[in-house]
Amino acid sequence: MVTPADELRCELARAGVRSGDEVIVPSYDVCETAHVVLSVGAEPVFADIDPVTFCLSAASVETAVTDRTAAVVAVHTFGHPADLAALGDVSRRHRVPVLGHGLEAEPTAAIARRRAHAQYLTARLKGVRTPRAQRAAEHGYQKYVVRVPGNGRPDRDAFARALRARGVDCQAPLLTPVHRSAAFRRELRLAETERACDESLALPLAADMTRRELQRVVSACNALGGLLQPAG
Fold this sequence. Notes:
CATH architecture of the largest domain: Alpha-Beta Complex
Number of domains: 2
Order of helices and strands: HEHEHEHEHEHHEH
Helix content: 25-40%
Radius of gyration: 18 Å
CATH class of the largest domain: Alpha Beta
CATH superfamily of the largest domain: Aspartate Aminotransferase, domain 1
Largest sheet: 4 strands, parallel
CATH topology of the largest domain: Aspartate Aminotransferase, domain 1
Structural class: alpha/beta
């Protein structure tokens, strides 16, 4: 069975990535992408994200390009397509290929139902910052990720504990940016990536959820006012 990692490895090979090259990847991601880059002998270079889409920021990629850059891997995060148009402008200026990665092949009906559920939540949730799709982007909502305003990770974690106590399963989608993980430990400041790790929370969203289950999520969140007393 061909895995997403296998597919990316093949794409890097087709793009001509060789040992000693650099490949720009998001740090707001699982470590697998960076490890695939290492597996072909190249060096992952981490760039920041757009705070709305959680996908690679074209401006950050622009600053990360060097004469060793051989490719950019644009991960489609949580089902939101990366901005391949803006990244394409960077690609043309520097003659560096951009490889889209991470969109899952799913039944159209399941995606449509998730989008309808996401619309329901977005219209009713209060006090949290709900996800927004870029204009013309088709968000697949593989995860429904909100931001908990306040004092970063302490407030996000307290909010999550309070939701779980009310029977709502939720989780931080990413705890540690890849550039700060034990495998890499890069001395690099990626402000939006780090802020997203501290503020973001994935709420339940599945194609087979009922309206009653969705309303339970809304009621639990809104009962907290969307924001707990900021942590000390």
